[in-house]
Amino acid sequence: MKRISPVLLVCCILFSTNIFAQNISRDGKLLRGEKWQRFQPTEKADFYVATNGNDNWSGTLPDPNSDNTDGPFASLNRAQKAVRELKEVVYSPKDAPIEKRWIGSPHELGKGRDILVLVRNGFYSLQEPLIFKPEDGGERIETNLPTGAFEYHKLKDNYVTYAAYPGEKPVISGGVPVTNWKKKGDIWIAQYDADTAAMLIVNGKKQVLARTPNMGYFVPPAISEKTDELYFNPSEVKNWTEMDHNRVIMLLRWHTGINSIIKVDEKSGVVSLRSPQEGVVIVPPRYYIENVKALLDSAGEWYFDKVRNELSYIPSKEVDSPNDILTSVPVINQLVEVKGTLEKPVRNLRFYGLTFEGVTTGNSAISFSFAHACELVASEVRSCNGAGVKINPGCYQPRILDNHFETIEQGVIHCVGAGNPCDGREIIRETQISYNKIYDCGGINIYAAHTLMTTISHNYITKTRGRYAIDVGGWSNQEEAVDGGYLVEYNHLDDVQKDADDSGAIKTAGLTFNSIVRKNLIHNVHAGFFNDNVGFWFDNMSSGWTTEENIFYNLEQGEMKLCAALIEDNVYRNNFNIESPVSAPEIIIEGDPVFEESNLKVLAASQTSSGKIVAGSVITISADVFNSGSTGIAPVQLYVDGKIYEEKFLPVVTNNSQKVEFEVRIYDEGEHYFAVGATPYKTIQVEGEKPAVVYTNLNCSTNRILNGELIEVNALAVNLTSEPQKMLSSLYLNNSKEKSITVHLNGGESREVKFEIQPKPGEYTLRIENSAVQNISVLEAKEVDISKEKIYQYCSAKAKPYKIEADKKNNRFKITAGGSDFFHAEDSYAAAYVKGIKGDFVATVKINEFGNRTHEWFRSGLFVRNDISKSFDVQPGSKGSVLVFATPGRAGIEYDEFANGCMHKASSENLPENSETPIYLKIVRHGNSFSGYISLDGENWIVERHTTNIPGIAETVDLGLAAGGPDKNQYWVEFTDWKIEIGK
């Protein structure tokens, strides 16, 4: 007999295990040694549920038998009862251990199996939620299989699964079917005997409650000073009949206001609201009116007449009659509740391939509490006025995978635990929310806070109507809070933030650890109306988050912002805002990029007459990179002389090309060859002496200034030798030496070389030794005589009442104003200003004094705007806004980054503690960009901020002194020594 080697024996065992896994249907899952697998559809089940079933039958047949004496159950409740009864039969206690040193587990059961309920096609209307308790789920059993240590046995999870019958799509609904529709003109009428109708669902689609305007929003022509009034434009609002149950839906800053009209004055254009509405006098509300019968005028709209108990509906043109389709009205606020306890969770309960629809507000369609290894997979949740899925405290390894969510109004998937749980069993751990597709949903689409090891990956989210697509972290947490281990990756967010304001497509908040947001694709992010919407947002108290390798494009506003968070406390790296791709990205992002490089080009800045490249000159190497794999970011290598010289991360959407470019300097004479990735090499010839030191990365603080202003110039000096170097480094203007400093460099060392110059008016080329060259312009300056200028005054609607004392002769200006905020669209300010400031200028002023106990965010300073008299009251104001400001404790700059009439971009910092007035401000225009400076002594500028080029800025602007409050209270500030110099 041949002896079998141990290696061969192991191989045989592994092979047999694989055959077993592939050919024998799984029953349960070993806790260790087996990976999770999704349920595989099968027609063989323990119980069946069908609309033609009977709860008095056995439920063990998929169809009624020939004599109609047995068949499937009719209800899910009956199936639930049958599962409990079967569990009593198939589960039994574990055997006593043979090994006396056995330790074992606390699980009492030793035998069991999976139980399957298949639900046939049809509409299942629930009158009350299905509640699943611990006795309804699967169980964890302790087998007799050894673990390899005599003290333990292997644990195994068995499941209870409710799944759609293969190829069928059963609908579990909280709606009551509506029948017997009758046509009256273009409107269909049906009797509905109830006190209310929260929603009408037609073939699974939520219909539109009668409204005006039919699409979009109205904007009031003016802001009322009363919080229970709303102005309207002629013909927008009328004194319609039967308005008792009308609703006014208002999009306000950070929230949606829901109110109703009690009176319409068509002559004055004012409606009176039932109750005061927070926010209407701070920001201009966009609004629409609904639930008025007279507004029923478009296909897809409906109305419920409470007096007549009638539903009215206008179907789409392709529908001959609502009687031919399924219409229903939801009557409950939850469909499924999986509810365990601290001591006994619901285990291993699965829902596969089912459709859930139609719940009213106040709850979620599906919820899990104290549920372990429960799953919602390959299902659909749609048309819900409440939330979609809620994962509550006490859940362990919940899986929400590969589902379709549509028209969910109050958040789609929310996973929120206790910030400081009293018992470890309350903690939500190891949640997986992946491969879901979310369409046209309101609220926060995916939200997770106060959880551990939550994965949100490979989801597709589009057409959001809430403030965030993905929101992770609890911003009010403390150091000891449970909030960490988030992994947010490979999500695809498209066409998001349409009605949002002051938001990010993905947002983080709070203190965390081991939390990563990476490899997500975010595009088509809509602009905010009041505040800015960005691709990514570090919000309140964000600390410990790493955000990397994300791709953005088609952002109407910014890429990233911070609020009450510091970039120093987080990591933001290798994220890219790219041009819109030619080919659209895939829906679900899965896998890695696969790059194919081509079209290698080598261009040199300096060449000899023979075509050779001068040693040390800049060489640009470029190539086209095509991505045949998944959308993502991957490194591209530049090879010089056969070795990797440099590597760049390149973001490329699938089936698109992008150009990559490198810059190098070759100092050694002779033949050199280049390649990018897999391109063929290209060869060049270099000649000339190798310099000992080269100067790279030349940078000027500005390229155009007024006479008397400073320019800061710096470059990086690099020692190319292994020997110490001592040299005179000089700054050249028009090839004439302007300034020199002595620089010491050790072998191979790099060091910044910096100069400050104040050149006379003229045009210059500028370089530091052998660096590249930049051009600068210095303009003659002419001082404006403030005492002879007409001083205009203006106050925005939100900053009133106000008072401006303008003493031109003594150059003293005192501004008293209130307001809600001198930022974003609130635009609360009063200003004293001059007109006609053309071209480049420098303006300075001294804040002489603030009033007693002035608010720390009473922004006061030098204000530039195309037209200061056009503030953002109910519509976007004048473009081209820049404010260099100080408050009693803070200073910085803010500006209209996106040319949409309000100042979204801000950069400021605290002044030194216990700083006092005077505070000196300076603003400098150079082309279409600005610089701001703040000083406490008028000589040393301790704060310096710069804008980008501002789109929409006019050549001739208004320039003035302005101030605005943040809290509706009045404060005052006194300015003196206002000075303006204009470039000739």
From TrEMBL:
InterPro entries: Pectin_lyas_fold, Pectin_lyase_fold/virulence. This is Right handed beta helix domain-containing protein. Transmembrane segments: none annotated. Gene3D superfamilies: 2.60.120.200, Single-stranded right-handed beta-helix, Pectin lyase-like. The keyword DNA damage does not apply. Residues 1-21 form the signal peptide. The keyword RNA-binding does not apply. Keywords: Signal.
